[in-house]
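Sanity check. The docking grid for zinc ion depends on where the pocket ends up, so I'm generating a full predicted complex first rather than guessing from homology. Inputs follow.
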Amino acid sequence: MTILKGTIRYGRQEIGYEAFFAQRKTMEIAVHPDGSVVVKAPLGTPKEAIEERLCKRARWVIKQLDFFRQFAPKTPPRQYVSGETHLYLGRRYRLKVHQGEKESVKLTRGILYVTLVSADSPEKVKRLLSDWYRARAEEKFKESVTRCLANLRKLGYSEPELKIRHMKTRWGSLSPRGTLTLNPDLIKAPRDCIEYVITHELCHLKYKHHGPEFYQLLERVMPDWQKRKHKLELALI
Ligand SMILES: [Zn+2]
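Predicted complex below; grid placement will be based on this.
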């Protein structure tokens, strides 16, 4: 299998890509949740032709990569006041801010209650909510990793170290040493989408690249991954 790696320039942006050659008639470009751009090309396609195609599709690729910007126009900026909705595990919850004796965030009966000790302060609500999302992410991601790993157990991999960190253009990544990093904002997506991102990264424990073997493995452990990927792209509005 031949792998070609390169970078194209589009405006001020650089887009790195991996290309694979196979017995096929057309070129196909895919963007993964870990920010990788993968081209499948017919055997013998020259590098120039691949890069020309990538340049033509660059706007789409950037849109896929920059998911925050992709969703931003549809998302009114949150004000952190009662009445607006916030996402958690793919569902929308109405925010209710009130005063009480102790600061807290609680999700009960479809309502996200934020209790403040002082008078209304959107800044404070924002911080409390962000801490809450992070704590939920830590718990839920851990459960999901364990569940996803069960499908890959036959490969003999043990649970990777899990880190949660904001990343600008990716949902997840896997370091060469096998540390799995997940974006805390992923906790806003439905669970099956979270598990898709995790499973994609876990498959990199076996294959670092996005070649045919990688897809075969992903397909085997998660046959509906494409559906989940698509759902993720539409989820965070
Ligand atoms: Zn990947």
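Relevant for the grid: The chain has two domains: 3-65, 73-235.
Also worth noting: Residues 122-152 form the longest helix (31 residues).
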